Structures
1.
Amino acid sequence: MSSNSMTRQGRVANRGTLSTTEKVGWAISGLLIAFLLVDGIMKLFKAETSIEGTIDLGYPESTVIWIGLTLVVCTVLYAIPRTAVLGAILLTGYFGGATATAARLEDPWLLFPIGIGVLVWVGLALRDAGSRTFLEQNLVRR
């Protein structure tokens, strides 16, 4: 048996178990996914708090559903392993807009969307070895 086929078999055998790093990544991502889906769905159903919050931020009520739909779609893409990188990129843009809105209003919660955006990438990097390798190669100086 060649070492190449043994490596493939080892990978297949390990697919069912997650490392501690992957478990932590999924825990972080899972909490974010739950939080973001609740927020997006509340906007889709035009919950009173979502409408009030959106208007307080200076956006018209007519944008609530579109903002909610955008958040739900980006979050679902982030939750699916095959499209998680695309979802993370789109969520980064979403939270960039939230950060810009908070900065414009001089909101003391300015760091909240920045922190959520960072956690999106931390969760992805911990749960996905390919993303982790890419980020290490491109962001970490050796």
Note: The radius of gyration is 19 Å.
2.
Amino acid sequence: MSMFTLTDARTQFTLTDAAAEKVKALIAAEDTPGLALRVAVRPGGCSGFSYEMFFDADVADDDVKSTQGGVQVVIDPASMGHLGGGQLDYRDGLQGSGFHISNPNAERTCGCGQSFS
């Protein structure tokens, strides 16, 4: 009898390959061992909540942790409730470059894409 595990996609936050590669390059440039990408949601912005991303060496016991594409991603439990099922992408094109979060929990977003409700 084989065993398998089902994972609810709403409990995951993923990075595209492009995002993972860009984050890895940025972490390498920091030249500080043990850095993780912290993704968080904070009150504020024109729609009620805003995204925050930064490198963090302090990982709490209750953080949601995953490693994707060689990048350790950490999210605090309160933020995970807003980010579950979301995805971080990195786009580089003629209209500009940058990170973009696709969030199925966002009912509306502002024009800048950094704020949601």
Note: The CA atoms of residues 100 and 113 lie 8 Å apart.
